[in-house]
Design a protein that fits this description.
By secondary structure, the protein is an alpha+beta fold. It has two domains: 26-76; 83-167, PH-domain like (Roll). It contains four helices and seven strands; from the N terminus they run βααββββαββα. The strands form two sheets. A four-stranded antiparallel β-sheet has the order 1-2-3-4. A three-stranded antiparallel β-sheet has the order 5-6-7. Strand 3 and strand 4 (100-105) form a beta hairpin. The longest helix has 27 residues, at 54-80. This is PH domain-containing protein.
Length: 168
């Protein structure tokens, strides 16, 4: 899914691996549906010969551009934006062409907060804000599915990491 096994430490295990909630693709899907309706309308109304015959080709070109910009690109962004919680760190990865990532060791996490709007509460997702003891500051993870489960699990792992660190 997101984090290859080659990037895990010797004793590290993936606990939760997730992407943004599918609601993130709702608008893109509606735009693509409108593009299909527009294409069908242009193909059914436009003449097949004569001076206005170029409308069919223009309809197909416009459809391809809209689907590429508002369908394929958002889907690729969604596909490559992952959040992984392991027993040692929180890992975020993002980017289609240029990849960015952030790894936060669990023992450096100071605060875990979330917020949910009305739609977020209905689909059980939310925005997670993780404050860490670093120069990078707060990491913001948007549209995390099953946000309450993610926060609960993260808090348990942070407590366990701090307890283990004190024992060393």
């Amino acid at each position: 899914m997101g984090l290859p096994a080659s990037q895990l430490g010797p004793q590290e295990e993936i606990v939760i691996e997730t992407r943004e909630h599918l609601k993130h693709l709702l608008v893109a899907g509606l735009i693509c549906l409108a593009a299909v309706v527009g294409l069908v309308l242009v193909l059914s109304v436009g003449p097949s010969d004569g001076f206005w015959a170029w409308l069919d080709s223009a309809g197909w070109i416009a459809f391809a551009v809209v689907v590429a910009v508002f369908g394929v690109w958002p889907w690729l962004r969604w596909l490559t934006r992952t959040s992984t919680l392991t027993n040692e760190r929180l890992v975020t990865r993002d980017g289609v062409v240029r990849r960015t990532g952030r790894d936060i060791p669990l023992e450096r996490i100071n605060d875990v907060a979330y917020d949910q709007g009305l739609l977020d509460r209905m689909v059980k997702c939310g925005t997670l804000r993780v404050s860490a003891a670093s120069q990078e500051g707060t990491a913001v993870l948007r549209d995390i599915p099953e946000i309450h489960e993610f926060v609960r699990t993260m808090n348990e792992l942070v407590r366990a990491a701090r307890k283990e660190r004190r024992l060393e």
